[in-house]
Amino acid sequence: GNCRPRIRPSFTQQYQPAACKFHHTPCKDPLDKLFTVHGLWPSNFNGPDPENCKVKPTASQTIDTSLKPQLEIIWPNVFNRADHESFWQKQWDKHGTCGSPTIIDKNHYFQTVIRMYITEKQNVSYILSKANINPDGKGRTRKDIQIAIRNSTNDKEPKLKCQTKNGITELVEVSLCSNYLGKNFINCPNKTPGKTRYSCPTNDIHY
């Protein structure tokens, strides 16, 4: 039957300077000191997350041009700003298609992200700045970052991703999890308990 579990989207945002620093090729274009959207990813609590789901062709219409100016600001292709469209398309193909029945079609997927990031202020840069955590390159504790975010997510646990280069660990990505398109925050599932190469240490996380 058609009883897909309700998606629990993970709203993942990347900090542009850190994302570029750890990318295999350098970013050519000037960066903003901002967390911008990486993607809205349907997530399962157990097992792998769904990807590349089949949708009706009508659901994959071209992106409404009126959405593009906002998407270019909040969801840029930081690795190649001459080509945002292929990044958006890839995110839709891989993740957005698995949002049915909650996500109706491609434009609804992008409208949802605009609503979450802009209207509902689920914007990690804004959330951190409310707690006086600003992108000044200082080292911070994991606890301070988590508390700052939990203050804006109804005390629910975010998912943090860090990477280290030349002995300096940076905050690269933050995911906010909800049980219904940004309504009702939930604790992000911790599918990799224990340390992974993307774990954030207790202290000295730079942002």
TrEMBL record:
Keyword terms of this UniProt record: Disulfide bond, Endonuclease, Glycoprotein, Hydrolase, Lyase, Nuclease, Signal
Domain of life (superkingdom): Eukaryota
GO MF entries: hydrolase activity; ribonuclease T2 activity; RNA binding
Protein name: Self-incompatibility associated ribonuclease
Physiological role: Self-incompatibility (SI) is the inherited ability of a flowering plant to prevent self-fertilization by discriminating between self and non-self pollen during pollination. In many species, self-incompatibility is controlled by the single, multiallelic locus S.
Family: Belongs to the RNase T2 family.
GO biological process: RNA catabolic process
Annotated Gene Ontology cellular component terms: extracellular region
Annotated organism of origin: Pyrus communis (Pear)
InterPro entries noted in UniProt: Ribonuclease_T2_eukaryotic (IPR033697), RNase_T2-like (IPR001568), RNase_T2-like_sf (IPR036430), RNase_T2_His_AS_1 (IPR018188)
Pfam families: Ribonuclease_T2
